[in-house]
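Most newcomers find our protein records easier to grasp once they have seen one. There is nothing in a record beyond a sequence line and a structure line. Getting from the letters to the tokens is the skill we practise here. An example says more than a description, so a record of this kind follows:
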Amino acid sequence: MSNPRPLQEEAYDMSGARLALTLCVTKAREGSQADLDALGRMFRQLRFESTMKKDLTAQQFQEELEKFQQAIDTWEDPVSCAFVVLMAHGEEGFLEGEDGEMVKLENLFEVLNNKNCQALRAKPKVYIIQACRGEQRDPGETVGGDEIVMITNDKPHTIPTYTDALHVYSTVEGYTSYRHDQNGSCFIQTLVDVFTERKGPILELLTEVTRRMAETEVLQEGKQRKVNPEILSTLRKQLYLQ
């Protein structure tokens, strides 16, 4: 029996192109421009080539993701990482386009997976989703004072279809998400602050985003509410943005 591989930190190679796509419905979503401005500032600091599209129909969400995939796969230089930011009204598993129709999140996520986007195969894909996932509201609760590598001589190294992805939702399943009419959303503003102020692996940064949001009191319809993001990761390595 061979000895297990020594535990060591490995990081994604971020020396290539960094590409970002933001798709945002602004109509009936006051404060969304503040989020777009903050994201633009963050992507500039983190050296991402960023494209932003506003007020798309449900079908256009899908079409813009597919155009992004085609651009990535035909990019002249190596691509290191892709960010996709999705901001709209929504419910669990769906986003609402500007036309009131729904697009399935899973269909959007599949566009850049290891099967469908060769240039991002085994490379990090980060999805930021600012949208409601249900109708529930959280008043808060009171509390007291290796990657496994399997290679044989006669088989090529393979990876699962859905690895190297990070999905960061603005709220947990079934709950609403909040946005201030002038200042934007607590989630996007906090995420941008942490990503631009701090250095470290992205999951560590997201823990700090969660901590800050958990300490924040959101006033909604005259009542104090709590909200926290949910992070789903299939990353195989550490991802550093700075």
Notes: Residues 219 and 230 are 20 Å apart (CA to CA). DSSP finds five helices and eleven strands in the chain. Residues 1-7 have pLDDT under 50 and may be disordered.
